[in-house]
């Protein structure tokens, strides 16, 4: 069960079904309440109509004994102001809900408000000719109850109507309307809902399951392809992108871009390892040859060459170690470095190198970062400039807004515009004929740019005023 609920498809189906179920229950409850309210109102209207008919007859002077109360479906009671039942339906056997439980009238001829029974049937019409008709009051709902009429017991809606007769008597007429129609309609609607709602929920769950499965089918394809890529380690493969232009398609596109970036990264790593192995092989082979010759012929030992190869090997190992640390995301130290003083320090002792500070740099030009790494950047730029300069290298330090700028310019041949980005790649040498001893391993500029980027800055190359190369290091001021 837990494995099934772990499926997005199952959770989506369950969630949709639950939402529809809550909505159906709320809507069904509202429908039943509205239906019951309307039917109760209709029953109340029918009961009021019956009560008004009896009240009207009483108001115009009809005697209790002459009231037409023979409607089997509408139980009627007439009660005087003392609460005594003076008239009721003929077949009424039992009643509740009106406040008067008696079903047989309790009065004699002396209590007849329309006159005594003197044997003259026309005396009421002659004696009451001058009386005005009585008054009917506003109806008031008595409530729900039950009544047994001619042996049948049902629920009723009772309405009471007050009336004043021509003789001034205050009476109350209770009349009821059966609620069998209301009960039948509500029960029918409830039965339909109890049968229809589960079927509707089953349809909703089934449709949601199918739609969700169709929507997630590309995800299954992406998962299978990613599993195949992981098993084969072939980063050149790509996951299928559906033509739906939805979130799944965007996920597939993002996955392919990630695979492309990963493939490029792995390829760069492989190329880096291959290039590093190639660069290390040369000084190691040279050093080994010199040592083997020295072992056989000590008098032929080239001590200076062995030291030079060792130093070159040491520098290359240091460069590779620094690149590995930069690739691992090592954050530079948060020390305060005087860039102007660092530039003078790195340029000191180098022949043909001059340092010029801008007029706005009166004192320190401070940046935040690692003094050792920033010194390495300046040293690499100066080494590259001296390697290509004809006669002079100039280092300028200035402040540009909130940034500190160090520019290293030489008067050599410069860098072609097409190669101004490529020279910052690792193990790249523009002069293929140049020896490794003279040109280095091609890591200096790559290290310089990586360090600049890690410090939140930039390193770019332009054309110098003297026609050579102008490397500009820009770092945010501390």
Features:
Helix Hairpins; alpha+beta; Heat Shock Protein 90; rod-shaped; seven-stranded antiparallel β-sheet; 48% helix
Structure commentary:
The protein is α+β, with helices and mostly antiparallel strands. It has 3 domains: 1-231, no CATH class; 247-327, Signal transduction histidine kinase, dimerisation/phosphotransfer (DHp) domain (Helix Hairpins, Orthogonal Bundle), CATH 1.10.287; 335-476, 2-Layer Sandwich (Heat Shock Protein 90). 48% of the residues lie in helices and 19% in strands. It has 10 helices and 14 strands. It has helices spanning 2-5, 8-59, 123-127, 180-232, 247-296, 303-327, 339-347, 371-388, 436-439, 444-454, and strands at residues 76-80, 85-88, 92-96, 135-136, 140-149, 152-164, 170-178, 335-338, 353-357, 366-369, 393-400, 403-410, 458-463, 469-476. The strands form 3 sheets. Strands 1, 2, 3, 4, 5, 6 and 7 form a 7-stranded antiparallel beta sheet that branches. The protein has a 5-stranded mixed beta sheet with strand order 9-11-12-14-13. A hairpin with a 2-residue loop joins strand 5 (140-149) and strand 6. Helix 2 runs antiparallel to helix 4 (180-232). The protein is rod-shaped, with a radius of gyration of 53 Å. The two termini are 59 Å apart. Residues 113-130 and 432-437 have low confidence and may be disordered.
């Amino acid at each position: 069960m837990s494995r099934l609920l772990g499926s997005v498809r199952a959770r989506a189906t369950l969630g949709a079904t639950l939402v529809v179920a809550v909505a159906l229950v709320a809507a069904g409850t509202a429908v039943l309440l509205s239906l019951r309210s309307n039917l109760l109102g209709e029953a109340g209207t029918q009961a009021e109509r019956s009560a008004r008919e009896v009240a009207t007859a009483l108001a115009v002077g009809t005697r209790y004994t002459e009231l037409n109360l023979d409607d089997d479906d509408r139980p009627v009671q007439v009660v005087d102001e003392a609460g005594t039942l003076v008239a009721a339906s003929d077949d009424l056997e039992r009643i509740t809900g009106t406040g008067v439980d008696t079903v047989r009238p309790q009065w004699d001829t002396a209590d007849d408000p329309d006159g005594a029974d003197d044997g003259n049937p026309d005396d009421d019409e002659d004696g009451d000719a001058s009386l005005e008709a009585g008054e009917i009051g506003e109806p008031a709902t008595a409530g729900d109850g039950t009544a047994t009429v001619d042996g049948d017991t049902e629920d009723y809606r009772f309405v009471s109507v007050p009336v004043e007769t021509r003789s001034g008597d205050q009476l109350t007429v209770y009349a009821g309307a059966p609620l069998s129609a209301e009960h039948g309609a509500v029960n029918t609607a409830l039965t339909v809902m109890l049968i229809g709602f589960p079927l509707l929920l089953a349809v909703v769950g089934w449709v949601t399951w199918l739609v969700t499965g169709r929507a997630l089918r590309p995800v299954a394809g992406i998962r299978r392809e990613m599993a195949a890529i992981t098993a084969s380690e072939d980063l050149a493969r790509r996951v299928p992108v559906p033509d739906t232009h939805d979130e799944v398609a965007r996920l597939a596109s993002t996955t392919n871009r990630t695979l492309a970036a990963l493939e490029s990264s792995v390829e760069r790593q492989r190329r880096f390892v291959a290039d590093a192995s190639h660069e290390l092989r040369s000084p190691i082979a040279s050093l080994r040859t010199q040592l083997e010759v020295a072992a056989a012929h000590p008098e032929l030992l080239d001590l200076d060459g062995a030291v030079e190869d060792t130093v070159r090997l040491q520098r290359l190992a240091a460069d590779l170690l620094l690149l590995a640390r930069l690739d691992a995301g090592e954050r530079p130290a948060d020390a305060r470095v005087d860039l102007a003083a660092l530039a003078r320090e790195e340029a000191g002792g180098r022949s043909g190198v001059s340092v010029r500070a801008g007029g706005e740099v009166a004192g320190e030009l401070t940046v935040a970062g690692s003094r050792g790494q920033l010194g390495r950047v300046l040293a690499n730029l100066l080494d590259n400039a001296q390697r290509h300069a004809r006669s002079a290298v100039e280092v300028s330090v200035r402040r540009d807004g909130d940034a500190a700028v160090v520019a290293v310019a030489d008067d050599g041949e410069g860098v072609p515009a097409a190669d101004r980005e490529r020279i910052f790649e690792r193990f790249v040498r523009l002069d293929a004929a140049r020896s490794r001893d003279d040109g280095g391993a091609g890591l200096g500029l790559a290290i310089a740019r990586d360090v600049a980027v890690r410090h939140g800055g930039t390193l770019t190359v332009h054309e110098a005023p003297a026609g050579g190369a102008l490397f500009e290091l820009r770092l945010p001021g501390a």
